[in-house]
Design a protein that fits this description.
3-stranded antiparallel β-sheet; 12% helix; mainly beta; single chain; globular
């Protein structure tokens, strides 16, 4: 978690461990994104019809709770 620029989880809430740690480290965090399907064995996350593999970019807007595929510029 420390190496990540932001944290995105499929479960949890405002008082979850990920949320508390992210807040303490000053990192963006979105928890409880139920639309995520984490496939650990394939090292990817499926969001709707899009598969995001390890090393791909995601952009998080923690204020609005939005996840964007790719790196926004």
């Amino acid at each position: 978690m420390r190496a990540a620029a932001a944290i995105l989880t499929a479960r949890g809430g405002m008082t979850s461990h990920a949320a508390l740690v992210a807040r303490g480290w000053g990192k963006c965090c979105i928890v409880g994104a139920s639309g995520l399907d984490v496939e650990v064995e394939h090292k990817r996350v499926v969001i709707g019809s899009a598969a995001v593999k390890e090393g791909d970019w995601l952009t998080l807007n923690g204020t609005r709770g939005l996840v964007y595929l790719g790196q926004l510029r």
